[in-house]
Amino acid sequence: MRANCRADTVNNFNLSDKLVGAGHKMIADTISITEGTCDGSGFKWERDLVLKGVVNAGTLQDYVASWDASAGEIALTMNNTTNKAYEIIFFTEITANQPVWENEVTLTGDGINESRDVKLEKQNLVVTGDQEGAVAGIVFLDDNNDGVADPGEGIAGIDVVVTDSVGTVVTVTTDTDGNWSTPVLAGDVTVYVDENDPDMPADLVRTVGKNPITLDIPADDVGTTLDGYVNNNNNNNNNNPANIPAINGSGLLALLLMIITLGAVAARRKVS
After folding, report:
1. Among 112-121, 124-133, 165-174, 235-244, whose mean pLDDT is lowest?
2. How far apart are CA 79 and CA 62, in angstroms?
3. CB 133 within 8 A of CB 186
4. 132-237 and 2-128 share a CATH fold
5. Spatial distance between the Cα atoms of 251 and 246, rounded to a whole number of angstroms
6. Cβ burial 154-183 (10 Å sphere, 16+ → b, else e)
7. Where do runs of H (alpha helix) occur along the chain?
8. What is the DSSP string of 86-124?
């Protein structure tokens, strides 16, 4: 920002430079105020009154500089100044949905009280907060128990509860293919599949995924989850692919006795 860099001269003045708009904050250790001259070729530096948030103690005889970074305001009072120009530089911290800020500059002195034009050379933005990413997933009936969401395995109508990094809760519902997605603030996001949902088939066991699960979602990126289930009966059958009937303890004993008996008969026949 440049002020008092015009054809007229205000030798003794008070300058207030204030950010306008909510969600803006100056970064205190970036504030610099420079004195120089201004001609047709531009601003020419002569001395630093404030450099990166520190007042130049060796030049305090003719000015007072102060600022409130949280309020977004800088004040400069110059005494006995002649034909000088002043450059104020600072970085701002703003929210991502308010990428543009404005300045309100008031100049008083030598009988004037007016708003001054501001020349904005460059915006240096440190963007914080309200950065968005997304999270998505699929809930599916893993019929073949392979941990992969195959075509036709999606479960529709299941509620998925998503809690973002600031505690905002959103409930989304899976589509006909079991897919779901939602935008979220960047940061830690917790995803919970409602396994008690009325549309969830009964007697299921999980084959893949964790419930709930917390993901670190970067800005402008997508985190994904995979939630697979199989019917408990199918799961037992997959562990016994030949579908051999289960043998209890007494059945196993009878089977062993039969094997031993048959072995004894075979031995006798071999002897005879």
Report:
1. 235-244
2. 5
3. yes
4. yes
5. 9
6. bbeebbbebbbbeeeeeebebeebbbbbbe
7. 232-238, 249-271
8. EEEE--EEEETT----EEEEEEEETTEEEE---------
pLDDT at 263 over 60: no
Close Cβ partners of 189 (under 8 Å, ≥ 6 residues apart): 133, 135, 162, 163, 164, 165, 214, 215, 216, 217, 223
pLDDT at 205 over 70: yes
Who wins on pLDDT, 208 or 59? 208
Residue with the two structure tokens 């990413």? 133
By residue count, the chain amounts to 272
Closest CA to 53 of 35, 69, 17, 29: 29
The domain spans of the chain are: 2-128, 132-237
Identity of the amino acid at 179? N
Query: Which CATH code is given to the segment(s) 2-128?
Result: 2.60.40
Using pLDDT thresholds of 50, 70 and 90, give the confidence band for residue 11: low
Across the range 34-41, mean pLDDT stands at 78
Torsion on CA atoms 63, 69, 70, 76, rounded to nearest 10: 20
CATH topology for 132-237 is Immunoglobulin-like (2.60.40)
Residue with tokens 């996001």: 189
